[in-house]
What does this fold into?
Amino acid sequence: MGKIDIVDRPYFSDRERFAELMNVALYHGERVLRPGDLVLRRGKYPALSHAYSEMERDVLMTDTRQNICYGIEIETESDYGMPERVMTYDACEYEYQMREIGQRHKNRSNYQSYREKKSRIKESDFLLPTVTVVLYLKEGRWEGRRCLSQMFHMSARSREMLGSALQDYDFPLIEADFADPQSYNTDLKEFFRAMQCRKDREKLRKLFQTKEFQRLCPETELVIARHLHIKSLINKMEKEELPMCKAFDDLMKEERREGKREGKREGRREGKREERLRIIRQMAKEGLDETSISRITKCTREELAAAGL
It folds into this structure.
């Protein structure tokens, strides 16, 4: 598990944030999911291939009031195979539920017919619906495929003839750069606002000066800092034990000071270069040939050309 996973999974596993994300993504902001009804589950399943020993969801919750499972897959890179991966996660969840129901009936020895035993569930049993949302945290638009049918190489005629017989599978998508921060009331509002300023340091600096950002909890500061992709910011926060906004402001000041120092160094370098070119031109004016000038001044061909020789 990488550092991003270590930070992101706990952050988006918070029940208030999770409920708000789902409500905005799936229910147009209506308060359908309630934090108190959510139970965090460990979504680990045996892998279907031999490439990996198991598959693990990023976040999986059960809404005990609605009896619906909700998952979040946190992505920092587009994935051309995402529809199949989401479908596999959901299928594994349904298989897990089937096994749980079947094992419960088996332990109680309450199968009453071969049909029930073969089915593993009784007619009165039901599965919990599962919905998986993809949260894309990289800059820009999601460039991966959005539905299973986009992974098929088929003629338009074949698609038309199969019609509804060709089953498709897609997923809801949240793109951090295009989410509406005003749709959120938790600190997700500040999270998305920061994500959308990643490419503009000055906008980010002004944002960090607002009272909303000054009072963010350390957990939110850390997840924001991770996705700003400013390595020196994380190092400064951890080494100097500074809050994110203070660490960022200090870095900006240091960068400005370094910029001024570099400007002075560049000015001195340019001054020395101009002085060398002046000397080369003066030597040429006094009749020295290029070979003699190069031997005496140790200048390069580029400097001779710049001096007009």
About this structure: The mean pLDDT is 88. The chain is about 50% helix and 10% strand.
